[in-house]
Each structure stands twice: as structure tokens, then as C-alpha cells.
Specification:
CATH architecture of one domain in chain A: 2-Layer Sandwich
Largest interface: A-B, 50 and 44 residues
CATH class of the largest domain in chain B: Alpha Beta
Shape of chain B: elongated
Number of strands of chain A: 37
InterPro entries (chain B): Hen1, SAM-dependent_MTases_sf
Strand content of chain B: 15-25%
Number of helices of chain B: 14
Cofactor (chain B): Mg(2+)
Protein name (chain B): Small RNA 2'-O-methyltransferase
CATH superfamily of the largest domain in chain B: Vaccinia Virus protein VP39
CATH topology of one domain in chain A: Nucleotidyltransferase, domain 5
Oligomer: heterodimer
Largest sheet of chain A: 12 strands, mixed
Strand order of the largest sheet of chain A: 30-29-28-31-32-37-36-35-21-1-33-34
Strand order of the largest sheet of chain B: 6-7-5-4-1-2-3-8
GO molecular function (chain B): metal ion binding; RNA binding; small RNA 2'-O-methyltransferase activity
Order of helices and strands of chain B: HHEHEHHEEHEHEEHEHHHEEHHHE
Helix content of chain A: 25-40%
Structural class of chain A: alpha+beta
CATH topology of the largest domain in chain B: Rossmann fold
Number of strands of chain B: 11
CATH architecture of the largest domain in chain B: 3-Layer(aba) Sandwich
Keywords (chain B): Magnesium, Metal-binding, Methyltransferase, RNA-binding, RNA-mediated gene silencing, S-adenosyl-L-methionine, Transferase
């Protein structure tokens, strides 16, 4: 809920058709990018006029979301009347909490219990707080109609609130639906008001629903009330969260400012309705888009200026100077300027300069600057379609990819944003104290009959036993607490070492020494791993992309095992060109390394070891394994990459295990342009994966586990209703007698929940292997959390697993254990990672294709981890 | 005038832009003209006029008064500073306050204003309140300018659907004569001059009806009274403050300090960056140096031109880069923020690593390499 939409009351319409079962998913229909022609730009809307400033409509912002009842499967809460009034709003607004998607009820084997049992108990606390309401609490929902019909919401509100003595001071009203904490005397109340024009209006307030505290409408209502509270605490809303502007941390080195704030959501958890709140940091930048443009111009010069601007700026979120709105930059219109005009809602033309002068008294100083275009996904008030923004009036927020890759910047940021468990819990506690101490907030809560438990919820989790790591018959003796076996693998031969008989080593002249040092080191480290490595074909090139490509075209032969390139700068175009050529036209695994990485003598051996391992994986080698007790199982990982820069492509990476030990992976990817559905491509992927599996194993798998990452907030419904049936369809198409057991697990890394282990009076991060499947999970899902990785500083983020489909008949404990095992299998990291290896592989693949290759790589490479 | 003719008119009259916007624009134009620093809006209701006025850069104190606290509370958040106000604090200071109270009562917080606006206010006052109103506004508050607008009942026959008054809460609506005589009398009594105007022109042929909204602009004839006079006045607070927002401003040392430190370090970083990349290029690829230099030098332009004097040149010594404060001070933005070199030194003291003699910003370049 971003809380920006404005609700407009409509009388319930009896005649509208009920939604067909399985009709179009409530997802946004992608809008095709409109060609940027001048006449179209004439119709751009300027940012909303003053009267629409946020908060201007003091009542429920984002109320529409409350009203948008999903079609509940099994959760029948709202009356038909309400449903009807909402239908024509369409599915524009997303439900970020995936309420009303009840997947557990279809899985009989977890009806009774979805908890595991193995491991030792651990005492945990979390960042959840119970929401309490008095007994027999209910929310009363009324429909309000006007006779004669009043159109404007303001008028409707004003007329209704003339009767506060009847309806009380505590109310929430969106123009048509009224929520009250108390029941009115009569089911239907008629009130009479007079408008400014002296017109008499009859208002009919009809009780439509008594909502129990756990109904989805109520839950959304709580969330809105909570937002009200945050606003009362003088926190500023940016995007979805609220931040405290009074004590910012500034990082002048990078011109950044960090605001501390809170994320919040109130949901029905296993036993209670709870508030989940976490510390959030908003990185803001003390410069405008125009400032950035100036400095880019001076850095790259005229020639590459526009391209660089597009690369750096498109996709960023900006904050406008004159109101509290955020916009995403979707395009830059170089042909327009502040002198350009737009059509106002009343039809008249006005230039931007004039508009800002008149509306906000702002003088635009640079009249030559281009205009930023933001495509509105949703209808905002009466404004729809592209919005034009002036760079000078937009402040940047968040970090660009370039900034994220700046090690020093991230280090400086981390000092402020990575809070250790105790401190994080303290900050969270502070919000609760604010709520508890503020009189107005308490009054509002009291009026609604709500209250919080101001103590965090604590419960017991389990730490499952550490997994054994095997490497060529050796069991590695590592400490599961550290979740890392880098040291233990040294000197132990790999499961499958691929000899490097014929390979190219390409470098520029100034990196000649580096290349030699690397070679020496590689020869030193590879024998103990069991890798046979011959002398490479050493080729010196000019430091130009074409030079690299020419060498590749001339020197790569069908026998070449791998191509090694030492690059002197992190210029992306060179890397992209090499990868593109070697992944599509000439399918050979390749390894690119920055010369700088190899330049430090003290680390060269470690680096060389890692490179040797990586090269081996890329050529089809296997490093280590864990015990997988299930037989004939194929494990699938899917992740998506969305190209935010051009906004045109989405890439789904798909990997599937090929062997019993899940050490070899088949991969494919789906490149999908805007507006296309992902699922068709995935179906094809699964088909080829099954073919390959049967080629390797001489039979088809009897069990399939799909780990699906990259599912956004609010997309669960689509996944359950469209993607899962496609998987089943695909399996059916293999053969009539083929019906493997399928398990689909949605993996989510970005969750609000945090767990803290109580340890000697203090709070620590829970150890790797911590499983949580009670209290903070959702009753309507078969879900659990696993903390699999360790972090050096800050708080560890648990990963959420939601089993949306399961015919495996496996116990929850086994599914949890399998998931945890798979987190050990990512070969680019000799330790445990946050997600199951197939998800990380799929991510790597999608990222490589999305960033560099832009089309499906050659199938010749599909049985190797060339994308590492 | 025959009735049909009038009715025809009633359909035609529609103001563009809407009348309330015209009234607001009128106030805004007045603010532009007189540049008052302290402005109070009596009967501010949904705060829409205040919201418009907060963008006027001359205003430093903005206050609203209304008899209904709820309507103010509902909209007061729109008067809070925006995120960007914190990110780029403005030069001027601005405090916005909302008071709950009646214009028939005197409260010391209303003293010292330059402009007081009463837009569509007086017609909502009960007779007893209206009696006290002139004494409170002109006698007690005594701002240099007062603007009063009210409906012109001469215009009412031209408006559709208006039976008695334009709004059910109106206690009266005056015609031009009534308003002007009240205004003239009030002005005379409190030593103000008054001029009449209005917004919402009558249709051609109906000029006699006057403006739809009539406006009186009162200007105080005597000079600003001293503090002493004001202190004699009753000073008991009767208004209740419902909202107060202090906008971040560079006048506040906390924000100025942040802005200066941020600007100093950022500028120093740019200079350092330039210096280092020049060195690196020279070291790595001497023959290429000439080719690359032009593009490096224009980043940013003014820095290239500024670094001329030898004493102001940044230099590298061992693992440290020294960027003289004098160089940084010569950057226009830093210069504008601080004013004097001494102030610059004072503001960044303890927050920026300086050389031992305090004359240059020092960066350690060792850190960069890991």
C-alpha cells in the first residue's frame, strides 16, 4: 500500500458482472512505451496541483486499498455489497502482503501441523508486537449514499461530518465506505445536511458488515490506522515507509544523507495479529538531478553525455521539491525543456516555467535542461499517463548500481545502516516507546479500541544440525557455526576436476607481469585440487574491445577448454562484448578477471585458488557435495532479472539438477520483452530440463522440487494460479503415465522479520541452521524461515520459504532440511548462502544474460556453470 | 431589469480561475508587492492559503487562526516541511504556527505581524464578535497591512441558487455601500487608509453590481509602534497552539554546519579525484596523458580556473593528499555559505580532518586501494 491513490465514492452497482473464476490476474497491465513524439509530450501532465498535496486530503490516504477486497478463496469475509462496489476499480492496487492467498488448505498433509522437529531448541525474540483489541471488538462498516448524488469526495465528507454527534469523532471514510468503532443505533440511519448552495441532501448510512478483528479488510484497516499514527509522530513518508527527518546522518564524502525510519505491517500471524516493524534506512542525496547531469557532463563530455545520463538516471526514484511525492524516472526527453508547455486539466496550455512560478513560486534557473518523464503506473487523482518533471526540482534518492559497486561508499554507508542485533532491537523499541508515550497516538488507538503489547514476542526456534560436506570421499571437518569451509577444502582433491589442456590467456601489455604471476600461482594451487593444467596460449592484445574480439575470433578452436581474459578496467562494454561472443556465437566458457584483483602479492594465492575452482565449475567440474537422501529427485531454481535501465526486458534464469548428488546443473533462460508472460517460457525450460535429466539418469525424476525466487510482493496469487498449473501441465505433457511428486517453494529474501537469539542476557544473531516455523509464520500458508548464512556485522536476514504446492507427502521437517542442504551447494562460495544454490545459480544466469548478453545463451553450454 | 434577462446571466457566470483561487492570487500578489516577513491568516480553515504562502520566499513567520480546530488539524500536515526541505535547507527561516481561537479575543502571539489577511471571514462572525473584531485586528494586532474580503450582496442576484446568503453559515452579507462605510469608519478610527477593490468581475452591462467578492486593503498610516507600546497591552494567552513547524534553514547553525561540511568534503573529494586520476594516468601511460587531459580539466570548470596560485595548489605527500582550505573557500558555493574564511574554519572545526596547521583538508589515500 503506497497510500497514494485517492478513493472516490461510488454507489454500489447491482448490475456489474461477477468475476469469472480464474480471470485475468490482478496484476498491472504493462503499458507499452509510447513513442516519444513532440505532440504526445504536449499532453504530459505537470505534477499535481497544490490542492492535491499529500495529506491534503486529511482522511484516509490509501483507503482504496482497504476497500479492495480480493476474491477470497475460502476466506469469505465481506458482504456481496462491498464486493460489488469495488469491482470496477480493477486490480490496479497491489496487495503487498499477499493476503487471501490460502495455499495451505489444499495440502492435506500439513493441515494439522507444518512444523519440523529436528535440531536443538533455541530461544528467539523477534521484531513482532501483538496487536490487542478489547473482547468482542468489531469494526463496523457502513455504506454511505447521498440523495441527490454528490460527486466530490470533499463534499461528501463535509456533509457527513456535519453529523459527528451521530457517528462519533472516530471514523474513517473514503467517500463511500465508512468505518466506525461503534455500532450505530439503527441498521439504516438517515441524516440531512445542507450544502453551501443551500441544497438539502439526504445521507443514508447503511450497515453492511460487522468485521471481526481477523478479517482481511480489518487487517488492511489496521495498517492504515498505523500509518496515521506514524504521521502523528511527525515521521515523513517516503515511498512505503516512514522516516524521521530530524536527526539525519550525513555522509559528506559521498553527498549522502541517511534517514532512519521504520517499515511496518500488521498481519494475521499463526496465533495473533501482530505488528512487524523493522528499522529502515533511506539513503537520500543532497543533490538534484540537474546537479548530477552537470557533473556527468563534465566527466564524460558531450559525446557520451546523453547515453550516460540515461544509464545513470533511468530507473532512479526522485523526490520533488514542491510536494511529498516520489517518481521513477522512466525516460529523459532531450527535445523538451522547462520552456515547453503542457496541457492543464482545464485544457489550457502553460509552460513549465510559468507553472512552477505561479504554483510554487519557484524560479527555474536553467532553461536548457531536458525534462524527465515518469510513466504513472496507477491513476493518481485525475492524472494518468506520463508526467513531466524538471531535473532541477527533483532530488535523487536511493543508490545507483554504480554507487552500490563503489566499495568505499558502501563501507561508509554500512557503518550507519548495519545495526548489530542489540542496537537494532533498541531502535525498534524506540518506535514502540514513541507510540506508547504520545498522547495523541494513544488517544487515537483508544478510540478505535486497539492497543499494542509493547514487549517483543519471544518463542523457541530450532537449530538443525550442521551438514556434512564431502569432497572426493573426504568429509570436511568444518565448524557449522562459521558456515564456511574455505580453509578445510585446501589440499583436498575435487569431486570432479576437469583438466585444462587447451586454453587462452588474454591480457594487455601493461598486464603482462600480472598474467605471469597469475599463471605461476594457478600452477601452484591446481595440482592439490586434482586439476591438470597445461600451459595456456598467451596472447597480448591492445586494450580495445575490438582487439579482444578479433583475438577470440581467430584463436578460439573447438578444442579450447576455457578463455581467460585479464581486463585492465571495469569498463562494462568490454566485458559484455566478450561474454556475449563466448556465450552465444562461440560457446566456450570464459573467465574474466580485473588486473587489479591480481595485483596484490599477499592475496594472490587465495585469489588463484578461487579462480581455479571457478574455472573448473565453468568447464563442468564438481567441487563438493552434501548428502541428499531423496532418490530420483530433480531440483529446479528460478529467478528473474528485470532490466530497470531500459525497462524493456525481463529475464528468467532457470536451472535444474542433472544428477543424484545435485552437483551438476542444467540451465536455460527466458528472455521476455514487456508485456509477455513469463510462464510459457518456463514451461519450455522444464520440458528440456526433464529431457536432459532422463538422458543423464536413464529415467524421469519421480520428485521435482521447484525453488522459485524473484516473486514480488503481491505476486503470489499469480504464481499460484498461473505458474503452478503450467508446471503441472508441462508434466502431464510428458506422458500420461508420468506423474512425479511436485513441490513448489517460493523463496523470499526480502522479508521484514528479524530474529535475535537470546544469549547471556544480550541479543545475538541466530546461528546458521535456525529454523522458525511457528508464531511468526502465516496460518494460511505452509511456510517457514531459515537463517542459513552468517554475517560479519549487522543483523542476519532470515529467508522465507513458502511451500505453495506440495504433493511430495514429505514431512515439513524433511522439506526444511532439504532446503537447508541446498544452501550449501553454491560452488562460488565455500560456505552456506542465503538461498538454495539453484536460486543463486538462476540469479547469476539471469543477471549475466540481463546485463551483458541480452539473449538466450547457446545451448551447448547448458550443462555447465558458465555463468558463475 | 427584467427577470428573464437575469436568469440568462445566472447560467453564464462562472469564474475562471475559480473565485477562491482569484482571492488567493490577490493575497499572493499583495505579498509580492509589500514583501511582508510575518503574515497571519485569520480564519485559515483548511490552510489552503497558508499552503500557498509558504512558498513565498519573503515570509519568515506564517500563522493561521481558526475557531474550528478540527478543520485545521485535518490539513495541518500539509504545512510540515517536505523531505527536500531537510535535504536542501533554504536560506530563509520559516516557522508555521496554527492557533485555535477567536478573532474576537486578543492574544499576544498575534503581535508584530506585517500582514493580516481575513479572507471571507467577517461574514461568519456573530454580531458581538464583529463588534470586537476591529479593536482586535486594527487596535491590538495593528499590522502594517490588513486585507479583508467578503461577499458583495449586490452581486447575489447574478448567482444561481443563492436565496438569502451564499453559505448557510453566513451571518450577513453586505452590499458595497455597507462594506465600504464599515471599512471607512474602521480605518478612520484606527488611523489606517483603505482602498477598495475585488475579484470576480461582473458581466458586461452589469458593472454596477461590482465585484463578486469585495476586498478592502487597509494600510496603517502611523509608523511601526515600539515594543513598549505593545507591552502595555493585555498579554494573557488565550489561543491554543495546535501545530507548529520550524523549517530547516541555513540560519540555524546546525543545518549550516551540515551544509558547509558536506560542501567542503565534496569539493575536496573532487579536487583529490582530479589530482589522483591525473597522477595515475601519468604513471600508467605517459604517452596518453595529453590526449586525456582536456576532458579531465573541465571537471568541474570553475575548479580548473581557480587552482592557479601556487599556494592554493593541492599536493600529495606520502600517503596523504592536501587540499588547501583557501582553494575550497574560493569555490562559489562554499564562499556563499560561509561568507568569511574564519567562519568556514569555525564551522568545520572538528568535523573535517585538517593538516596540522589547519590550512588544508587531508585525505589518506591508503584506504582507497583495498
Amino acid at each position: 500500500m503506497t497510500g497514494r491513490a485517492r478513493a472516490r465514492g461510488r454507489p454500489p452497482r447491482q448490475g456489474s458482472a461477477p468475476p469469472a473464476v480464474g480471470d485475468a490476474p490482478p496484476q498491472q497491465t504493462p503499458q507499452p512505451l509510447q513513442p516519444q513524439q513532440p505532440q504526445q509530450l504536449q499532453q504530459l501532465h505537470a505534477p499535481p496541483p497544490l490542492s492535491e498535496e499529500p495529506g491534503g486530503h486529511g482522511h484516509l490516504r490509501g483507503f482504496e486499498s482497504v476497500l479492495q477486497e480480493r476474491r477470497p478463496e475460502g476466506l469469505q469475509v465481506s458482504s456481496g455489497l462491498q464486493d460489488l462496489s469495488l469491482r470496477d476499480r480493477g486490480g490496479r492496487r497491489r496487495d503487498f502482503h499477499d493476503l487471501g492467498v490460502n495455499t495451505r488448505q489444499a495440502m492435506v498433509h500439513v493441515q494439522e501441523s507444518k512444523t519440523g522437529f529436528s535440531g536443538r531448541m533455541i530461544k528467539l525474540t523477534t521484531n513482532h508486537f501483538r496487536l490487542t483489541s478489547r473482547p468482542q471488538w468489531a469494526l463496523y462498516q457502513y455504506h454511505v449514499s447521498y440523495s441527490p448524488e454528490m460527486e466530490a469526495r470533499r463534499v461528501r465528507s463535509a456533509l457527513l461530518f456535519q453529523h459527528e454527534e451521530h457517528i462519533g469523532k472516530t471514523h474513517a471514510f473514503d467517500g463511500s465506505i465508512l468505518f466506525l468503532p461503534k455500532k450505530l443505533e439503527n441498521k439504516v440511519t438517515e441524516l440531512f445536511s445542507r450544502t453551501r448552495n443551500g441544497e438539502d441532501v439526504k445521507i443514508t448510512v447503511t450497515l453492511t458488515n460487522e468485521l471481526p478483528p481477523t478479517s482481511p479488510t480489518c487487517l488492511q484497516f489496521y495498517n492504515i490506522i498505523f500509518r496515521r499514527l506514524l504521521k502523528m509522530l511527525n515521521l515523513q513518508q517516503i515511498g512505503r515507509n516512514y522516516y524521521n527527518p530530524s536527526d539525519p546522518v550525513s555522509i559528506p564524502n559521498h553527498r549522502l544523507m541517511v534517514w532512519l525510519g521504520f517499515t511496518s505491517s500488521i498481519l494475521q500471524y499463526e496465533e495473533n495479529i501482530m505488528l512487524c516493524t523493522d528499522v529502515s534506512h533511506k539513503v537520500l542525496r543532497g543533490e538534484t538531478v540537474l546537479d548530477t547531469m552537470y557533473s556527468l557532463h563534465s566527466q564524460v563530455g558531450e559525446e557520451r553525455f546523453r547515453d550516460t545520463c540515461a544509464k545513470e538516471l533511468i530507473g532512479l526514484i526522485v523526490l520533488t521539491k514542491y510536494n511529498n511525492r516520489t517518481y521513477r524516472i522512466d525516460d529523459i526527453d532531450w527535445d523538451n525543456s522547462p520552456k515547453g508547455t503542457f496541457r492543464k486539466s482545464d485544457g489550457s496550455e502553460m509552460s513549465f516555467v510559468e507553472y512552477y512560478k505561479k504554483q510554487y513560486n519557484i524560479e527555474i534557473s536553467d532553461l536548457m535542461q531536458p525534462v524527465l518523464i515518469s510513466q504513472m503506473k496507477r491513476k493518481r487523482g485525475n492524472i494518468q499517463g506520463p508526467v513531466a518533471l524538471i531535473p532541477e526540482l527533483c532530488s535523487l534518492t536511493g543508490l545507483t548500481d554504480k554507487m552500490r559497486s563503489d566499495f568505499n561508499m558502501m563501507k561508509d554507508l554500512a557503518i550507519h545502516t548495519r545495526l548489530p542485533p542489540e542496537q537494532r532491537q533498541r531502535e525498534i523499541g524506540r518506535l514502540l516507546t514513541y507510540i506508547q508515550k504520545d498522547d495523541n497516538v494513544q488517544k487515537e488507538l483508544r478510540n478505535w479500541g486497539l492497543s499494542f503489547d509493547y514487549k517483543t514476542v519471544s518463542f523457541t526456534g530450532r537449530v538443525v544440525q550442521g551438514e556434512k560436506i564431502f569432497q572426493s570421499g573426504n568429509m570436511l571437518d568444518y565448524n557449522p557455526q562459521f558456515a564456511d569451509w574455505t580453509r578445510e577444502t585446501r589440499g583436498v582433491p575435487l569431486i570432479r576436476a576437469v583438466p585444462v589442456d587447451s586454453w587462452l590467456l588474454i591480457y594487455t601489455r601493461r598486464n603482462y607481469d600480472v598474467a605471469n604471476t597469475l599463471l605461476q600461482s594457478l600452477f601452484k594451487v591446481s595440482p592439490s585440487m586434482g586439476i591438470r593444467m597445461s600451459k595456456p596460449n598467451m596472447i597480448e592484445v591492445d586494450d580495445r574491445t575490438e582487439a579482444y574480439l578479433r583475438v577470440l575470433q581467430q584463436r578460439v578452436t573447438p578444442d579450447t577448454n576455457i578463455v581467460f581474459c585479464i581486463l585492465s578496467s571495469s569498463r562494462k562494454d568490454k566485458y559484455d562484448a566478450i561474454k556475449k561472443y563466448l556465450c552465444t556465437d562461440c560457446p566456450i566458457p570464459s573467465q574474466c578477471v580485473l588486473a587489479r584483483t591480481l595485483s596484490k602479492p599477499q592475496t594472490i594465492m587465495t585469489v588463484a585458488t578461487k579462480i581455479a575452482l571457478q574455472m573448473n565449475c565453468k568447464m563442468g567440474g564438481e567441487l563438493w557435495s552434501v548428502e541428499i537422501p531423496l532418490k530420483q529427485v530433480m531440483i529446479v531454481g528460478i529467478d528473474c532479472y528485470h532490466d530497470t535501465v531500459s525497462g524493456k526486458q525481463s529475464i528468467a534464469g532457470f536451472v535444474a539438477s542433472l544428477n543424484q548428488t545435485v552437483t551438476r546443473w542444467f540451465s536455460r533462460c527466458v528472455v521476455q520483452s514487456r508485456g509477455q508472460e513469463l510462464v510459457d517460457g518456463i514451461k519450455a525450460c522444464l520440458q528440456t530440463a526433464l529431457r536432459n535429466w532422463s538422458k543423464w539418469n536413464k529415467c524421469l525424476p519421480s520428485r521435482i522440487f521447484v525453488y522459485r525466487d524473484g516473486v514480488g510482493d503481491g505476486q503470489l496469487n499469480t504464481l499460484v494460479n498461473y505458474e503452478v498449473p503450467q508446471f503441472l501441465d508441462c508434466l502431464k505433457s510428458i506422458g500420461t503415465d508420468y506423474s512425479p511428486r511436485l513441490t513448489v517453494i517460493v523463496v523470499k529474501k526480502r522479508v521484514g522479520a528479524r530474529f535475535f537469539a537470546e544469549f547471556g542476557g544480550g541479543l545475538k544473531n541466530p546461528p546458521p541452521g535456525t529454523v522458525v516455523d511457528t508464531v511468526v509464520t502465516r496460518p494460511e500458508w505452509y511456510d517457514f524461515f531459515i537463517v542459513s548464512q552468517t554475517v560479519k556485522n549487522g543483523c542476519v536476514a532470515p529467508t522465507h520459504y513458502n511451500v505453495v504446492y506440495d504433493t511430495s507427502q514429505l514431512k515439513p521437517d524433511h522439506v526444511q532440511r532439504l532446503t537447508y542442504k541446498l544452501c550449501h551447494m553454491y560452488y562460488n562460495w565455500s560456505g552456506i548462502i542465503r538461498v538454495p544454490a539453484p536460486c543463486q545459480y538462476a540469479h547469476k544466469l539471469a543477471f549475466l544474460v540481463g546485463q551483458s548478453i541480452h539473449r538466450e545463451p547457446n545451448m551447448m553450454l547448458s550443462d555447465r556453470l558458465y555463468y558463475l | 431589469m427584467d427577470k428573464n434577462f437575469q436568469e440568462e446571466f445566472t447560467h453564464v457566470i462562472k469564474f475562471k480561475p475559480p473565485l477562491y483561487k482569484q482571492r488567493h492570487q490577490f493575497v499572493k500578489d499583495l505579498v509580492e508587492k509589500y514583501k511582508p516577513k510575518k503574515v497571519a491568516d485569520l480564519g485559515c480553515a483548511d490552510c489552503s492559503l497558508l499552503r500557498m504562502l509558504k512558498f513565498c520566499s519573503c515570509i519568515e513567520v506564517l500563522a493561521g487562526v481558526d475557531i474550528c480546530a478540527n478543520v485545521m488539524k485535518e490539513n495541518m500536515h500539509t504545512l510540515s516541511p517536505l523531505p527536500v526541505d531537510y535535504l536542501q535547507p533554504s536560506e530563509r527561516s520559516l516557522t508555521v504556527t496554527l492557533h485555535h481561537g477567536s478573532v474576537a479575543h486578543k492574544d499576544p502571539c498575534m503581535l508584530g505581524f506585517d500582514l493580516v489577511t481575513c479572507i471571507e471571514l467577517i461574514e461568519h462572525l456573530e454580531e458581538s464578535e464583529l463588534e470586537k473584531f476591529p479593536e482586535v485586528v486594527f487596535g491590538f494586532m495593528a499590522p502594517s497591512i490588513v486585507v479583508i474580503s467578503t461577499p458583495n450582496s449586490d452581486f447575489n442576484p447574478l448567482l444561481p441558487g443563492v436565496m438569502l446568503y451564499r453559505h448557510p453559515d453566513h451571518k450577513f452579507e453586505w452590499n458595497q455601500g455597507q462594506f465600504q462605510s464599515w471599512a471607512l469608519e474602521t480605518a478612520r478610527c484606527y488611523d489606517y487608509s483603505v482602498e477598495f477593490t475585488g475579484v470576480g468581475h461582473p458581466p458586461t452591462g452589469m458593472e454596477k453590481a461590482g465585484f463578486c467578492t469585495q476586498i478592502g486593503v487597509f494600510v496603517r498610516k502611523y509608523p511601526q509602534t515600539g515594543e513598549s507600546v505593545q507591552s502595555e497591552k493585555p498579554t494573557e494567552a488565550v489561543y491554543k497552539t495546535v501545530f507548529k513547524a520550524v523549517y530547516p534553514s541555513l540560519k540555524d547553525e546546525k543545518y549550516l554546519k551540515n551544509a558547509v561540511i558536506s560542501e567542503v568534503i565534496f569539493t575536496a573529494q573532487i579536487i583529490k579525484h582530479r589530482l589522483m586520476s591525473k597522477r595515475e594516468e601519468y604513471r600508467d601511460d605517459p604517452e596518453r596523458k595529453s590526449k586525456f587531459q582536456p576532458s579531465m580539466d573541465c571537471f568541474p570548470d570553475y575548479l580548473g580556473k581557480l587552482v592557479v596560485k601556487k599556494s592554493m595548489e593541492p599536493f600529495v605527500s606520502g600517503n596523504e593528499v592536501y587540499i588547501p582550505l583557501a582553494t575550497i573557500f574560493s569555490v562559489p558555493k562554499v564562499n556563499r555559505l560561509c561568507g568569511t574564511f574564519e567562519k568556514l574554519c569555525k564551522l568545520i572545526a572538528g568535523k573535517v580532518t585538517l593538516s596540522s596547521d589547519g590550512s588544508a583538508v587531508v585525505f589518506n589515500i591508503e584506504d582507497e586501494d583495498n
